[in-house]
Each structure stands twice: as structure tokens, then as C-alpha cells.
Amino acid sequence: MLDKFNRKITYLRVSVTDRCNLRCEYCMPAEGIKLIAHKDILSFDEIVNVCRTAAYHGVNKIRITGGEPLVRKGIVDLVRSISAIEGVDDIGMTTNGILLPKFANELKNAGLMRVNISLDTLDPDEYRKITRGGEITSVIQGIVAAQKVGLEPIKINSVVFDNHDNSMKDALKKFAKDMNLQIRFITQMHLDTGEFSIVEGGTGGDCSICNSIRLTANGFIKPCLFSDDQYSVRELGA
Fold it and tell me: Cα–Cα distance between 101 and 114 in angstroms, integer?
């Protein structure tokens, strides 16, 4: 499957929910956001059908995202169904890590291969402030749980703010090295202006080599977060 820029699309990012158990400052306003109605959220059968269709057209890598994917009831069953699709040989998940101690073993057994875990600071107070109430100890426990069952390599996604303290960045680098984790620094995206940067320690943000498309929780295929183009899988009958 090629896009209009002749890039081969092999990667599908699947958002399974817009719900989250954190309220990160850079993700939503203090008053929260209007959530998608439950009736508009894709069912697992619909998600699996889209993944199967994507695999038929050459997608072999699928990443499950949210919101926070682990708050969606039955997420282990979805992973198991996607892992059974012929042609899919790489299944990952992006998570804040808080619920991994509960789900890591089941996810591994269901076919999940690796996880990316969001962690922007090692300072408990700063983490609590950024996430509006999150406890960093829960994330650390999630990292350990993922390592224990072999959900590796584990990548840490750390958002870099305009006023980011370099000492905080250095501390995260040391933490990743000591824990045998990979770390990527992601410059805060400005969704209102469409500004973003190439990820430090990764390939995200480099449009010239982008090979991914996205499926939103309410059923739209988007080539890019910053594109107005979108196609309803329900209308297309995927």
C-alpha cells in the first residue's frame, strides 16, 4: 500500500479509547475535554476488521493507543484477536504504565510484544503536577512489571517542554540507561498551529520516512494528526 508520496504504509496506530486515568497538562485543559459518546466508539469486532483489512494491504505493524488503552474493558481480548491476524508480526502499545502491574502478564500471553511508556520527569511532585494527580511510583512499578514478563524493548516517551529543565532530561537518560530502557524525547506538539519536531532518539516527526496511518477511536482513518483528511471506516464498510 503506497500513499500519494510513494511511501509504503506498513504501520497502523489504533486508538481504542479517548478515556484516560490521567489528565496531563499538555494533553487536555484543566476542565477536561468532551468525550466521544460510547455508541460512537468502535467495537472490538470493528477494530479487528480494520486491522485485518490493513494487513491484507501490507500493514504488518500495529500499535494500540488511546487515551489510555488499558482503561478499555476487554483490552486483553482485543490484543489476542489482533495477534491472530495473518500478516501482523509486530504488536505494540503506548501506555502511561499505571495499569501494567495488573495487565502485563495477560497482555504478553495474548500476543503483545512491547510497550512504550510515557514518563516526562522523575520528580514525584513534578509528575503529580504534569499529570494532575498521578503517582510516579505506579509508573515505575509498571516498567518493572513489563520487564518481568518480557514486553521489551521498553521505550520511554518523554515530552520536552519549552521550559524543560536539562537536569531533568539528564536524569531521565540516566534512569533509562540504568534500567536498560530506550528513551525518546518528544518536543511538545502544538496542535493548534501544526508545529512539531523530529523525535530525539526515534524517527517520529520525520515526514519523509513516515509509514503510518491512524485509526481513531470513533472510526476514522487519518494519514496524519495534522491532516484534515479522514475517512470513516463505517461508511466505507471496512
Answer: 14
pLDDT digits (tens, 9 = 90+) for 42-79: 999 999 999 999 999 999 999 999 999 999 999 999 99
Could you tell me if residue 6 is inside a domain?
no
pTM of the model: 0.90
Domain count, the chain: 1
pLDDT of residue 1: 64
The CATH number linked to 35 is: 3.20.20.70
Cell of 173: 537518560
Each residue's pLDDT tens digit, 187-225:
876 656 655 545 554 455 556 666 789 999 999 999 876
